Structures are given as C-alpha cells and as structure tokens.
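thought: user wants a sequence for this fold. calling inverse folding tool.
action: design(structure=
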C-alpha cells in the first residue's frame, strides 16, 4: 500500500470508529464516512464495500496487530505469557471500543461483529495448535482436523460470549478481574494463567 493509500486508510479508520461509537453502525453511510474522513466517497469504496465492512476491517486490523505482537514466534519466552498478554490487549481493545461492541454484540448486527471476533479468535487458536505452541487433548477415533476445529470454535465463541457479557457491565470495567474469571472458565489444559 502506498503512502497516500495508507493516509486515506488511517483517516477512514478514525472516522468510521468515531461515527460508529457516536451513532452506531446501523446509522453509518459511506457518504458520512467520506465527509468525516475528508476523502471522496470513491476512496471509501476502495477500502470497503459497506460501512459495516469498513468497521469490521478496522477492528480486525487492530486485533491482528495484537496477535502479531504477542503470538509471533519468539515474541515471548513462553506461551502462557504470550496468551495472557494477548488476552489483556484484546480486552483493552474491546474496552476502548465498548460503544461499538456493546451496542452491536447485543443487537441485530451481533452476527457481524460476533462473527468477526469469533473468526479472529478461532484463527489464533488454530495457529497455536498448528504451530504446536499448545497441545489439545486427543480423543482416539476422532479426526484431528475435527478436534482442532472444535477446540478453536469452543474457545473462540466462549471468549466472545464472555467479552459481550463483560462489556454489558458499566464502566469502569476491571480487566485484571475479568482475566482471573476468564482463566477459571477455560479448560485446565489451556495455557493461560
């Protein structure tokens, strides 16, 4: 991506998050996003097909940066630290964007953001499994791919549900207390603690 496109992307990210936090995703329009970002409407369409698509892209980019920072090979000395730091940063991300997530996870748009979060977490779990950074329990007679996918979905969807419930609490929300509770919800073989 060239410098001009990066600047446009940054302006669009700021504008769409500000508008979504203030007005909700359902009230967004490509025209309003373009005006708030100070770009042409065609520029918005170069980056997304709809306001919801742009919101998901911007949030997913932030989540991907968290995953890259903590779960890349060699990022931390041990996987427990990597997963714990990832969890804390994801909770900060969710808390920073609570107006978007809490409004959308509990509404008709819930499938859009729930799905985006679940897909992100699922991919993170699968990455950890496939790199052998974590080892899941194995049941003889069940396909390994099925077991990996089941574990990934279980952790991902449970995590999104817990975050949704946490965001429904009034601020200020205690990230450290949530992490303690979340760790107790996870299976004992999951390496966070």
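)
observation: tool returned 193 residues.
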């Amino acid at each position: 991506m060239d410098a001009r496109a990066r600047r446009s992307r940054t302006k669009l990210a700021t504008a769409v998050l500000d508008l979504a936090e203030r007005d909700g995703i359902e009230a967004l329009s490509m025209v309003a996003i373009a005006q708030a970002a100070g770009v042409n409407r065609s520029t918005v369409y170069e980056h997304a097909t709809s306001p919801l698509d742009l919101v998901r892209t911007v949030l997913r980019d932030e989540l991907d940066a968290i995953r890259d920072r903590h779960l890349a090979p060699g990022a931390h000395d041990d996987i427990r630290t990597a997963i714990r730091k990832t969890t804390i940063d994801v909770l900060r991300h969710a808390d920073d964007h609570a107006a978007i997530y809490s409004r959308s996870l509990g509404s008709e748009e819930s499938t859009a953001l729930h799905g985006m979060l679940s897909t992100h977490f699922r991919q993170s779990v699968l990455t950890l499994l496939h790199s052998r950074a974590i080892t899941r329990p194995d049941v003889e007679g069940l396909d390994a791919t099925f077991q990996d996918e089941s574990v990934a979905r279980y952790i991902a969807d449970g995590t999104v549900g817990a975050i949704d419930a946490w965001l429904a609490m009034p601020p200020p929300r205690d990230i450290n207390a949530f992490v303690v509770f979340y760790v107790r919800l996870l299976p004992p073989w999951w390496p966070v603690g």
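thought: summarizing for user.
answer: Here is the designed sequence. The mean pLDDT is 92.
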